[in-house]
Amino acid sequence: MFRLLPCSSIKILLIMLSVNIFWLVRVYPPAHNTNAGQSVPQLKAEAMPGCPQNLEVVNKPLPLPKYSFEGALPVKNNNTISLTFDNIDLRYGRWDSQQMYKIKDFAVVGDQYAESSEASLICLATQSSVERLYSLPQVAENWRGPLSVALFSAGNEEYIVLRYFVTYLRLCFPNVKANATFHILVPREFDNLPTVQMDTVNIKNKYNCQYPERTLKALLKFRTAKTLEWRQKNTYPQNHMRNVARKGCQSKYVFLTDVDIIPSINSVVQLNHFFKTARCEGSCAYVIPTFEIDVRATFPRTKDTLIALIKKGLARPFHEKVFIYNQYATNFTRWLLSKRNETAVSVSHTVTNFEFLYEPFYIAIDKVPVHDERFTGYGFTRNSQVYEMYVAGYKFLVLSPVFTCHWGLQRKQARPAWREQQNNANRKKFDVFKSEIFARYKNDPHL
């Protein structure tokens, strides 16, 4: 249990962290000139290449309890807050296999991570760029179990943003502070990107724990054009991040997601009951159906309320309009027609019509194939790993009534040039990958 500080002390800590955030934004506004002569607004007009896409921005208060500060971070002798990752030296860490990225495993461990990992059969592993991290509070609130979170920092500026924002998350959201363990991945060029020092000043303003996205947007203005240029020229290492997050889990089963995929409420309790007695012949992966919901809707508390949203046109299967083959094999129709008023988790059905490019979010023992790290950026990152699982003989079992949601009804839009370039590059890599998989397993599914 956390020991609460006196109200006055908590207010002081709140003000001091606000000081830091305000100072960063005011003293280091977005740069309008760099060696390349480009401005930040021009660079920010397009989403960062390879980052998980949320086509409709949710800029409203998250459906979270109105938290007060139930925990606090240490205060140094000079009365400044000890920021998250304060004792981390990024000059040291393990390299990935190609020495392209340096990794700091367990950079910050959740206060109750060991206990929650021991108590839960399932750990949720997720990954995020700095832009998408505002989704984590709702993930942590709904999950309430062990979370292994891999964070990518392109350079020193983004690392500073992460330090302030993760501090904010740990102060504001008890489930993040208790259950979330963070790992950091930085590129080899990290030290060549802009470097600044961190200071504090006094300020009277306060920030709002109900608006993590608004807080993060204010911090992101701190990045200069040089950092954003690097992000545009370099692909986001999604599969490196997934592997780091997976290996950070300490439970028997791993539920691998992206950070903007929100699990249904109370699902960790329901899933633990299921996996206590689950039996699988051979190799199994348990698919959790994913839906996208209109930003005007309230997050569905149950499968029945989700079905009601679908009937109103406020929810639908994930990527149904953008790229149907992404989730089509899940067979949402069958899932939606299964018995109503369910509480206990059970297998709804088995995936029998596996489609090439299928990429469900699933739970499995972490003996599944690694995510191949030659695939970076957009295209073939998740589905290549699921394809290998299928060739290796895994069965995909769809669970009910648990589900996940993604905010925003996504619409098909013209692909930006960078996205098409990354997809084409990964398609060529996949041709080689597919041949390797055939040779490894002596099995060609002819998909």
From TrEMBL:
<keyword id="KW-0464">Manganese</keyword>
<dbReference type="GO" id="GO:0015020">
    <property type="term" value="F:glucuronosyltransferase activity"/>
</dbReference>
<comment type="pathway">
    <text>Protein modification; protein glycosylation.</text>
</comment>
<dbReference type="Pfam" id="PF13896">
    <property type="entry name" value="Glyco_transf_49"/>
</dbReference>
<keyword id="KW-0479">Metal-binding</keyword>
<dbReference type="GO" id="GO:0035269">
    <property type="term" value="P:protein O-linked glycosylation via mannose"/>
</dbReference>
<comment type="similarity">
    <text>Belongs to the glycosyltransferase 49 family.</text>
</comment>
<keyword id="KW-0325">Glycoprotein</keyword>
<protein>
    <recommendedName>
        <fullName>Beta-1,4-glucuronyltransferase 1</fullName>
    </recommendedName>
</protein>
<keyword id="KW-0812">Transmembrane</keyword>
<dbReference type="InterPro" id="IPR043189">
    <property type="entry name" value="B4GAT1"/>
</dbReference>
<keyword id="KW-0328">Glycosyltransferase</keyword>
<keyword id="KW-0472">Membrane</keyword>
<keyword id="KW-0808">Transferase</keyword>
<keyword id="KW-1133">Transmembrane helix</keyword>
<dbReference type="GO" id="GO:0046872">
    <property type="term" value="F:metal ion binding"/>
</dbReference>
<keyword id="KW-0735">Signal-anchor</keyword>
<dbReference type="GO" id="GO:0000139">
    <property type="term" value="C:Golgi membrane"/>
</dbReference>
<keyword id="KW-0333">Golgi apparatus</keyword>
